[in-house]
Specification:
By secondary structure, this protein is of the alpha/beta class. The chain has two domains: 160 residues, FAD/NAD(P)-binding domain, CATH 3.50.50; 106 residues, FAD/NAD(P)-binding domain (3-Layer(bba) Sandwich), CATH 3.50.50. The strands form six sheets. Strands 8-15-9-10-11 form a five-stranded parallel sheet. Strands 3-4-5 form a three-stranded antiparallel sheet, with no helix packed on it. A three-stranded antiparallel sheet has the order 12-13-14, with no helix packed on it. A hairpin with a 2-residue loop joins strand 3 and strand 4. The protein starts with 8 loop residues before the first strand and ends with a helix. Bound molecules: flavin-adenine dinucleotide. Flavin-adenine dinucleotide binds next to helix 7. The site of flavin-adenine dinucleotide has 34 residues, from helix 7.
């Protein structure tokens, strides 16, 4: 969008997109089922005709607000100056520390039922997590399957009301420590506990928390929501003048389609802000 507005854009990206563990992006109309790396390849290919957009593979290690914009420092020593700054730095998921998880993550172990629940409809599914978060995930998964087992990997710490809701939804609870995941290839088949029998499961969804992937929003003085997202306002603007934050790092739903839409929204806002600055400068100059 910014490139199409003939703005000079420098896109710094280390390329570690959050969904790189996944085999397919779901819920992205017209591109449903595309592997994340292919989506990235297509995005870069479609940016290439825009000579206004420059892709830089470096990490931004620091950013500072100045009187007329931002000073940006990259890991390769490059220093950049920009009038506006749009961060789409994403989040990092805290993965459960269960032996074998990495083998299944993004294939038969997931965190988001909206992204991957459909593929496991009517299958035996485990919800992994403690307290209200784990129980809420288990209840949410009943949309996709009636065979849900909640694994709290320790005391579940549930309120009597939540326990009643689980019982009413026929969700079983196992509080034993989860020792490991077993399966064939990247297909989960069973969970092994420290006591009691292993349980057969085709998929596991977890609720273990997440954090900002970059310190840049905090370092630049952004305000955050209670859940740790950057507290953005209209068109992804922040409390820091000239700074916009979009995608998972900001406070709305975390989907590829939403991240892209927020990017377009922010781009329009950045373009309008730059246009207004130019028009004001023109008016000032014409009065002299
Ligand atoms: C396993 C998994 C499966 C998923 N499946 C789906 C799905 O099916 N459908 C769906 O809609 N969503 C899915 N999601 C969510 C989706 O991945 C995110 O909503 C989306 O990636 C958000 O995009 P983003 O640009 O905000 O962040 P990211 O994709 O995390 O991209 C952030 C980018 O910024 C770069 N970066 C960060 N800091 C710096 C820095 N300082 N300097 C330079 N570059 C930096 C990173 O390297 C990365 O390339 C899934 C997530 C996971 C973890």
């Amino acid at each position: 969008m910014l490139g199409r507005c003939r703005r000079r854009v420098i896109l710094c990206d280390t390329g570690l997109s959050r969904n790189r563990w996944s085999h397919a992006v779901h819920g992205l109309l017209t591109r449903d089922g595309t592997p994340p790396a292919e989506l990235l390849r297509l995005a870069r290919e479609q940016l290439s005709p825009y000579d206004t957009v420059e892709l830089v593979g470096a990490e931004v290690v620091d950013a500072l607000r100045t009187a007329d914009g931002f000073e940006i420092r990259c890991s390769d020593g490059t220093a950049l100056h920009s009038r506006k700054l749009l961060l789409a730095t994403g989040v990092i998921d805290d993965l459960p520390a269960i032996d074998g998880l990495e083998r299944f993550y993004g294939r038969s172990v997931h965190h988001c039922p909206y992204c991957d629940g459909w593929e496991w409809r009517d299958q035996p599914i485990a919800a992994y997590g403690r307290g209200e978060a784990g129980a809420g995930l288990a209840l949410g998964l009943t949309v996709w399957s009636r065979d849900i087992l909640l694994c709290s990997d320790g005391p579940a710490a549930l309120s009597p009301r939540m326990q009643d809701r689980l019982d009413a939804a026929e969700i079983r609870l196992r509080e034993e420590r989860v020792l490991r995941m077993e399966g064939t290839g990247d297909q989960l088949e069973r969970l092994v506990f420290d006591t009691g029998a292993p349980v057969a499961r085709s998929a596991l969804f977890f609720a273990s928390g997440q954090r900002q992937a970059s310190e840049l929003p905090a370092r630049l003085g952004c305000k955050f929501t209670e859940t740790g997202a950057v507290n953005t306002a209209k068109c992804e603007s922040t409390n820091v003048p000239g700074l916009y934050v979009c995608g998972d790092a900001s406070r709305e739903a975390q989907f590829v389609v939403v991240a892209a839409a927020e990017g377009a929204d922010a781009a329009m806002a950045v373009n309008k802000a730059l246009l207004e600055e130019q028009l004001a400068a023109n008016t000032l100059a014409s009065r002299r």
